[in-house]
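Lab meeting minutes (informal)
Scribe: AK
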Amino acid sequence: MRIGVDLGGTKIEAIALGGGGDVLARQRVATPPSYDRTLDAIARLVLRIEEEVGERGTVGVGVPGVVVPSTGLVKNANSTWLIGQPLERDLARMLERPIRTMNDANCFALSEAADGAGAGASVVFGVILGTGVGGGIVIDGKCLVGANLITGEWGHNPLPWMTTDEFPGPPCYCGKIGCIESFLSGPGFERDHELRSGRNERSRDIVTAASLGDEGAAESIALYHNRLSRALASVINLLDPNVIVLGGGMSNLPGLSRAVMALLPNYVFSDSVATPVVPNAHGDSSGVRGAAWLWPA
């Protein structure tokens, strides 16, 4: 039995998968904003899962950051109480077994590559379009981590082929300007819509307005489609993946995959585009499933 844990900023979810990827049990709790209480919450979830199923399992944890192999400490976590902490070592001690950790975007990509929308593909690029913009790369069933532990961080490259009215782009929290994340994240989409229309609206309200014939809302969505196609074209030009799987809240924009596929030929350096861009298969469960898949059968 594989147990996966998704350590999010607001909730911690644990899942148990059988050998065929079937869900045996699921538990979740609110994320406590302290390191010691987070450790305790994860350990309790794992033990509750095992008690429910009646079996001991391997444990993989998806984290909002990375554990640096040379130090064993967490870095780049938006749950700041994790930064600089030996999460993997402490959990291994508490649960009395080895623990595997991986960035949560990589877990999403791994889940979709294992038995989701990217199943059977050799190279999968998993995209997170949410509060931030991230991603993960899976090659032949294994996450590509990289020398700096930042593989898949396409959101902190500049938006390609900026127009004159886009340049130099909005500031990003990373300290740069014009990052893909600052355009394609949910907050970036809403901010850009407000600048163009003068209306401060949530993403879902913009979608609703567009469906009712609002031209300004429709223009904001069309611009989002175009920017996403430019950004993904640069990924295809570099990585040339077999499939791109979209995840995160903004991936729920109606018709997003089809719209991007239609625009990609304008930007990809090829006379045709063979890489499909597809919705994810497992939704919000992809991260926790991917954490479970960090261990082989």
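Next up, CB showed the second protein from the same session:
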Amino acid sequence: MSRKSRFPSRLAEFRKRRGLSQLQLASVAGCSQRHISFLELGRTQPSREMVSRLAVALALTFRQSNDLLLAAGFAPIWSEMAFDAEALAPVRQALDFMLEQQEPYPAFVVDRRWNLLQANKGAVAMVEFLVGPLQPGAAVNLADALVGPDVLRPHLTNWPEVVAYFVRSVEADAATDGTAETLALRDRLLSYPDVQASLVQSSLVQPSLIQPSLATPSAEATGAPVLPMRFAKGGVSLELFTTLTTLGMSLDVTLQELRIESFFPMNEATRAVFRQWAAPPAIAEKRRSSS
């Protein structure tokens, strides 16, 4: 199939995914409904400028915009640099600063599919306490670590509720970007043991929905404004909530897809554990002796 022949189906797919009629898309893109119809039927070939207008009207990501341009036979306009590219050094320095400010509490930098790119000392301390030392240079996917059976699950006491929420967010990503990679991540997570059952049985799931895995959390079920992650190991308990931050004004696919996940303690006991982990050995020993 030629690149040009892909454009009609890709345009229709993006439009329907956004829940727009041809008339609605035409109104936003500043053209006629007839023109949109002809584009989707392949009776009219779009100009490069028209593809860019449609991408803006559809609120496409940079990756999706490039995909639509390629489908129409044009070169992509948005760069996709490697995370370690020299040009991204100022961004990596800014991320280092953000991670440092989060100490002693954990923070991770991940890509859109939850592959780990950076972590601060608090994150390393928490992960090594829960699962043991990390292998230098080993690829880590936080989605697999959270949802899979053998990494974080044994220590996450409210795993069904957290997984129900998290998988819902990945399904939303898959529905939004529609890339093969995100769809593969979603399918992999759903294939892990007990995930499907947790989505149905979790107190966070509204069982009346036709697709339980697309259910939304219930505030009444948690009794709290945020869903905590509760870890327990060897008499140590941690209760945390997370935030997700993205970069503003990015002009590159890699940067647009970056996420910074920061963990915050929900009680003084959790705060004390992270302060102890971050303290120099002599001070930490003194704290343990006085407790």
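CB comment: Residues 243 and 262 are 5 Å apart (CA to CA).
No objections, moving on.
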